[in-house]
Amino acid sequence: MCGISGIVAEDSNSRETLAKWLQVMNSLQAHRGPDGEGIWVHDLGHVGFAHRRLSIIDLTEAASQPMRSESGLVITYNGEIYNYIELRQELGVEKFRTTSDTEVILRAYEKWGEDCVDHLRGMFAFAIWDETNKKLFCGRDRFGIKPFYYTRNKDGFFFASEIKALLPFLDEIATDLNGLKDYLAFQFTLGEKTLFKDVKQLLPAHTLTLKNGSFRIRKYWEVQYALDWHHTRKYFQDELRSELMDSIRIHLRSDVPVGSYLSGGLDSSVVGSLARQIQKNSEYHAFHGKFLTGPEYDESQYARAVSENCDMTLHEKNFTSDDFLNNIRKVIYHLDYPVAGPGSFPQYMTSQMASEHLKVVLGGTGGDEIFGGYARYLISYFEQCIKGAIEGTMRSGNFVVTYESIIPHLATLRNYKPLLKEFWKEGLFEERDKRYFRLINRANGMLKEINWELLEPYSAFKTFREIFWGKNIQDESYFDSMTHFDFKTLLPALLQVEDRVSMAHGLESRVPLLDHPLVEMAATIPSNIKFESGQLKHLLKTTFKDDLPEVINQRHDKMGFPVPLSEWMRSDLKDFIQDIFHGENARHREYLKPTFNIQSLIDSEGKFTRKVWGLLSLEIWQQEFHDKFYEYQKIREVIN
After folding, report:
1. Of the four listed, 50, 166, 193, 466, which is most buried by Cβ atoms within 10 Å?
2. What is 2-221's CATH topology?
3. Contacts of 78 (CB under 8 A, 6+ apart)
């Protein structure tokens, strides 16, 4: 787990010039690798790599990066290849100089070329300079756990783990308006767009090749929803247990101690409990953040139940409005752009706490997207059930539950009544894509605040539809279409938060639920088993119920990582928010209407709505990056 960056210059420079550029990129990502740094520059001065190291596997100097091979390959790499031991055996142990997974990627490339990514099991973003073929080859893991950003300009091709490392090399720091429209709709961008103009991301499960000025991007993996109707629930339960235990076993591979996040929800509880079953013979640390503002914000009783059940040492911390005031700018700076939901703040604080005790933690990210954990799936299916009952198409194959069976589980929606009211206000029983878009689209709630004419003619709905109706999904499966869209879009956004808030503190966060053999198996499970009777994450719950305390099995009120922002912004944060939006630059953002009034917005904000958060984090992002362009210009002046 590290920070990487690199340059392929348009023209040959002096080695000293390229080294200075790379040193700047390294310094802007220093938090990602507190254990060491390295720079490699080609003798001709036309290509170079930089690296910041967080030592997890093979702690010796020999495993430092950028790493070179005898065959003329150079690599800078961020992540963990969990099957590195098996690959070493397959590739021939005698060829290796180190025990690191970095060298495994080099040897895999030597043997399989660009197809090496098909053999890697883990989280990764890397770049290889192939001197023999005079080309740059880059790869990113299947889910986007590790980041890879790039830009191209007159000086060449620049890449890095974080966008901030690219900013000194941009001609301007400007907002990508199409990305902004995505953000206002979903609170994340779609596709390769970012919120920074001229900066793109290499998509998950893609590779990038640059040779003689020719630029090629290739998708190397896709999850296939080829539903298996032949096997029973018991079969899938056995497969799920086997695959997840195997994933956690290899995710525990490390030369330093490993612990777990415990949020109090099902996913992290399952991961932590299984990890403890495997790692029995030493102390095991777990970490939990909470708010004492009210019981709906304090889930510590559930985290304690799991830790006591599994004999873990649980570290708890209460977060306050003062913590928010003192850290929210740091959070947005490390995130590089605003993100979906204020949960990034307590995640940042929990990661800080964990980093004081160890270097590696396991988390439960991915369970909601893979196994169907979001309440909006239940809302959408409830509508489809009603429609099917009225039209007499309940048994047509478009539904995996009946309205009779779903009713007992609607109590899950108790805290979502405002969303239900808005969702059913118009468009009832329209096509599935339009209805799900309406359910997740936040733009309609900001018609009075946003200058939408500025963001025309780009259609976020058109991009949404291309993903929602993916060719890898069977048309009749509404459940798979919904989860697939979130898997392709929301999940990478959540993983971006996972990466940034942990790496801000030199901490490695691992996500065992996102192991590609497990995900491929889960994609074959029919929805009537995954989502039986409208029970969210039904298969995950039933498979691991005996591994968890009963209080976890009985939970129906998990809501992510709720933050008491609505209470704080009417009291402790009131002056802070007013000051944020009344600054000289804030009053003249072109995407805000002249009539925008933050106090009116606060007064109308519901308990768990995110309108204020969306605009607050957007404004802080503008101030931390756009308004500081002159600082990045100064950096550029120095290095030139």
Report:
1. 50
2. Glutamine Phosphoribosylpyrophosphate, subunit 1, domain 1 (3.60.20)
3. 1, 2, 3, 4, 32, 124, 125, 126, 146, 161
Q: Is the omega angle on the peptide bond into residue 66 within 30 degrees of 0, that is, cis?
A: yes
pLDDT in tens, 498-534: 999 999 999 999 999 999 999 999 999 988 898 887 7
Q: Which residues contact 547 (CB under 8 A, 6 or more apart)?
A: 270, 273, 274, 277
Side chain identity at residue 620, one-letter code: I
Question: Within 13 Å, how many C-alpha atoms sit on residue 215's CB side?
Answer: 8
Helices (H), 252-295: 266-278
Domain boundary assignment for the chain:
2-221, 222-607
Query: How far apart (Å, rounded) are the C-alpha atoms in residues 270 and 290?
Result: 19
Contacts of 264 (CB under 8 A, 6+ apart): 288, 299, 300, 301, 302, 303, 306, 552, 558
Name the nearest CA neighbour of 214 among 170, 157, 171.
157
pLDDT at 397 over 60: no
Straight-line distance from the first to the last Cα atom of the chain, in angstroms, rounded to the nearest whole number: 30
pLDDT digits 0-9 by tens, 61-105: 767 899 999 989 999 999 999 999 999 999 999 889 999 999 999
Nearest CA among 458, 438, 464 for reference residue 180: 458
pLDDT tens for each residue of 444-461 = 888 889 999 999 899 999
Query: Are both 2-221 and 222-607 of the same fold?
Result: no
Separation CA 514–CA 502 (nearest Å): 17
Q: Could you tell me which CATH number the domain at 222-607 has?
A: 3.40.50.620
| Integer angstrom CA distances of residue 433 from 429, 465, 475, 536 | 11, 7, 11, 20
Output the six-digit token pair for 533. Answer: 């009777």
